């Protein structure tokens, strides 16, 4: 049985005081919660600080990005080896904000996926369609294309011990969210798409939902059979709201 993962993406938010308050609050709110993996991904400058705050916790340390190189003349970039040494285990790649603002292609993201796997880190691969693509009925084609970039470069078994986060771009930060039925249909498509090549890989891969997940809509989303937790943006910046989402995932998947 897949263990859900709820991961908080802080994006370009935070300070040392905010990190201290948030982590302290999460450890208090989530004491004794079982059945759900929990991760947070602060900005890279706070990784070492947050890692120390998490030293007595089961909360996983994540990062928001990685470079395709391990070292060299790549000013401003951070390598997988550096992240690993800081205590990071899970790394978000392919987020729509990186695809859009930094013009990251499917093939470039696949290279990032590969460097993470080589360094025994868990890729959290974000995929999803724009509002225009959704309205044109292209959701499945877009998701398949983004997944196939990984498979073409690395093979389907690269999705062993990996995470996919389906994040419809039209729902990120907009307050809109796919209905549980809509999200489930896409998640099932993603799993079935991978299963065409390897049913065992498809059965174990964690597929999160992201896109305005909050403490109000999380419980109903998590009742869907192919939704294995969430990648959470704004609601992950508030300990009480994020804790409600984690508890909802743990409760839904314990049944």
TrEMBL record:
<dbReference type="Pfam" id="PF00121">
    <property type="entry name" value="TIM"/>
</dbReference>
<dbReference type="InterPro" id="IPR035990">
    <property type="entry name" value="TIM_sf"/>
</dbReference>
<comment type="pathway">
    <text>Carbohydrate metabolism; erythritol degradation.</text>
</comment>
<keyword id="KW-0312">Gluconeogenesis</keyword>
<dbReference type="GO" id="GO:0005829">
    <property type="term" value="C:cytosol"/>
</dbReference>
<dbReference type="GO" id="GO:0046166">
    <property type="term" value="P:glyceraldehyde-3-phosphate biosynthetic process"/>
</dbReference>
<dbReference type="InterPro" id="IPR000652">
    <property type="entry name" value="Triosephosphate_isomerase"/>
</dbReference>
<feature type="binding site">
    <location>
        <begin position="9"/>
        <end position="11"/>
    </location>
    <ligand>
        <name>substrate</name>
    </ligand>
</feature>
<protein>
    <recommendedName>
        <fullName>Triosephosphate isomerase</fullName>
        <ecNumber>5.3.1.1</ecNumber>
    </recommendedName>
</protein>
<comment type="function">
    <text>Involved in the gluconeogenesis. Catalyzes stereospecifically the conversion of dihydroxyacetone phosphate (DHAP) to D-glyceraldehyde-3-phosphate (G3P).</text>
</comment>
<dbReference type="GO" id="GO:0004807">
    <property type="term" value="F:triose-phosphate isomerase activity"/>
</dbReference>
<comment type="similarity">
    <text>Belongs to the triosephosphate isomerase family.</text>
</comment>
<feature type="active site" description="Electrophile">
    <location>
        <position position="95"/>
    </location>
</feature>
<keyword id="KW-0413">Isomerase</keyword>
<dbReference type="InterPro" id="IPR020861">
    <property type="entry name" value="Triosephosphate_isomerase_AS"/>
</dbReference>
<feature type="active site" description="Proton acceptor">
    <location>
        <position position="167"/>
    </location>
</feature>
<dbReference type="InterPro" id="IPR013785">
    <property type="entry name" value="Aldolase_TIM"/>
</dbReference>
<keyword id="KW-0324">Glycolysis</keyword>
<comment type="subunit">
    <text>Homodimer.</text>
</comment>
<feature type="binding site">
    <location>
        <position position="173"/>
    </location>
    <ligand>
        <name>substrate</name>
    </ligand>
</feature>
<dbReference type="GO" id="GO:0019563">
    <property type="term" value="P:glycerol catabolic process"/>
</dbReference>
<feature type="binding site">
    <location>
        <begin position="233"/>
        <end position="234"/>
    </location>
    <ligand>
        <name>substrate</name>
    </ligand>
</feature>
<comment type="pathway">
    <text>Carbohydrate biosynthesis; gluconeogenesis.</text>
</comment>
<dbReference type="GO" id="GO:0006094">
    <property type="term" value="P:gluconeogenesis"/>
</dbReference>
<feature type="binding site">
    <location>
        <position position="212"/>
    </location>
    <ligand>
        <name>substrate</name>
    </ligand>
</feature>
<dbReference type="GO" id="GO:0006096">
    <property type="term" value="P:glycolytic process"/>
</dbReference>
<keyword id="KW-0963">Cytoplasm</keyword>
<dbReference type="InterPro" id="IPR022896">
    <property type="entry name" value="TrioseP_Isoase_bac/euk"/>
</dbReference>
